[in-house]
Amino acid sequence: MHFVEPSREVLAETLLAAGPDADTLCEGWKTSDLAAHLYLREHRLAVALGLIARPLAQVSDKATRKLARASNRSADYGKLVEKFRAGPAALSPMKLPAVDKNVNLIEYFVHTEDVRRATERWAPRALDEEYSNALWDELIKRAAILYRGVDLGIILVRPSGPRHVAKRAAVSVAIVGEPGELLMHAHGRRHHALVTFEGEPDAVALLDSAEIGQ
Asked: Which of 104, 157, 181, 193 sits CB 3.0–4.6 Å from 163 for a disulfide?
């Protein structure tokens, strides 16, 4: 099953419900900044490239700030979110289903939770098993990159049994949680991820201070 479009719908509804000035887990960003980011990465090639190529990062940041400022009123913000909901531009590579899944399945999940979990009271969503499996499959493809800044071995473990060695080292820590929670931890949202750790106390402490998802 293709989960990207339903995930886009959930993210759009979450943004609309929060309004333009709500906090997010993205440092320095309100929901208007996040909505601008989501729209521009699918409609402006220079912005999309700026997310992966450091020399273009300033172009991406400037465009995002400009659109966010122009969309901080409720009506303008609503229009921006609806443009995001409508999907990528006609010539965007994200129109291709394989590219769409590769770059957006995790993006949409994490950013939905960036809005949902930026409040004092939140609870994890009950995810469909097939959706959880799809998130797990995408996570293990990139886990080694997400944990590359950690000087430890990393083992990702689902409570149902599956495990994945993301990184090998003499000392390892196992991170245990449902796929969505493991995703949040792997993308640096460590204080908003419902995971547990198995390993030596010093190793767990080192993981807690390491750069993750950078």
From this structure: 157
pTM, whole model, 2 decimals?
0.92
CA-to-CA distance for 33 and 15, rounded, in angstroms? 11
100 and 171, same structural domain? no
Do residues 13 and 69 share a domain?
A: yes
Contact in structure between 14 and 35 (CB atoms under 8 Å): no
Q: Is the pLDDT of residue 55 over 70?
A: no
For 58-104, the pLDDT digits (tens) are 777 888 889 999 998 889 999 999 999 999 888 888 888 888 888 89
What is the sign of the dihedral through the CA atoms of 41, 20, 31 and 4?
Answer: negative
Q: How far is it, in rounded angstroms, from Cα 174 to Cα 91?
A: 42
DSSP 167: E
The 10 Å Cβ neighbour count of residue 194 is 13
